[in-house]
Each structure stands twice: as structure tokens, then as C-alpha cells.
Fold this sequence. Notes:
Layout lengths: L1 H12 L4 H8 L3 H8 L7 H10 L4 H5 L7 H14 L4 H9 L1
Helix pairs in contact: 2-3, 2-4
Amino acid sequence: MKEVNLIKKYRKLRNMTQKQVGDAVGISDVAVRQYELFKRKPKDEILRKIAKALNVKFSYLKEAHYPYTRDEIFNILVKYVLEMRICRKCLRKSYKS
């Protein structure tokens, strides 16, 4: 059931609540919580919907390995840096160092 651990990881990465994931998938937030706590195991059909709601590949949730490529990690970091409103000039200076 290692794939269930990844649901919470990706949900938090996407800044989503259990309710938001549940609403997107058509299940209750209680069901999402149970999947994350290993109390229930989602069927593949539900897992596919969860993957779609979290904008990740189904195989990422199904397989127990870290699926991000360097480019994906870079894009995630850039997104958060921009959200934090860090000055672009500060970033350029740090790249030159």
C-alpha cells in the first residue's frame, strides 16, 4: 500500500485539502483521509481519478518511487519562488555566484 502515502504527498504539494481532492474525484474527504491513513485501499479507478485531480500520472501513485525529473523539480521550485514574490534580480545574482 505504499502508493497511498503518495496521495498525501502530492495533495500537499498541490496545496489541496482532502475535501478538495474528494470533491474533484467524487468521493468524500473521509475516504481520502482513510486512503492516506492506510485504513482503506483505493481501487484503480478511484486512484486514476485522484491522480487526475492531483495532476500526476497514475503510475506515480501506483508505483512506490519518486517520479519527478529534474525539469519537473525545477518547474515546481520556480513556481514557488514566484509565488513567494522573491525578486528576480536576487535570483540572478545567486546564479552568478
